[in-house]
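A favour, since you know our structure tokens better than I do. Go ahead and set the record down below.
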Amino acid sequence: KSLTTCTTKHRSRTMPKVKKTGKQKTKVVHPSSRKAAQLVREAHRKERLERRKAERSLAVSNKVVKLMWFREHIDETKLFYTTSEMLELIESYLRRLDDELEELVRLQSDKTHFASHYRQQHASKEDTIRSVMVRERELFEGAGFEAPDLRTQKLFKIFVEWKGEENLLPKIALAKYRSE
């Protein structure tokens, strides 16, 4: 018989280690130690990752809202849209906030109905709407406004069948359109 078989045959059995349960004392970390710096880095990293995750989800939800506007305003009886029809659709998208902005301006100018502090309450919303309108208009006239690509039957059909699911967003083809 070999030596290995003999040792495995007569191996003494040990009891399994018992994990500690209950409260364990946490060690105090010196503020200028390497361990403290490591803990600070981990905390900052987790915070940064959470912030980026929130920013990504906000960007995705904004894109879904934008695409749903186009989804609601397209003519589903068509087979596809031409570039000029897409430009008209984008122009109407850019004008979607005009009525709300006019209403806010009218409310602010109505001195008999509201107190002055109430009129100032809508100033932030008005500024936000104006900045969104200016940014979108600059994109449309400059680098290009991103909108769904509906210029082929296949892409148009995919977009019509889309119901606003975020997980299917990569299937939606987007194109950049510039004003003529």
About this structure: Strands lie at 145-148, 174-177. The CA atoms of residues 80 and 153 lie 5 Å apart. The helical segments are 3-9, 34-73, 83-94, 98-109, 116-121, 123-141, 153-161.
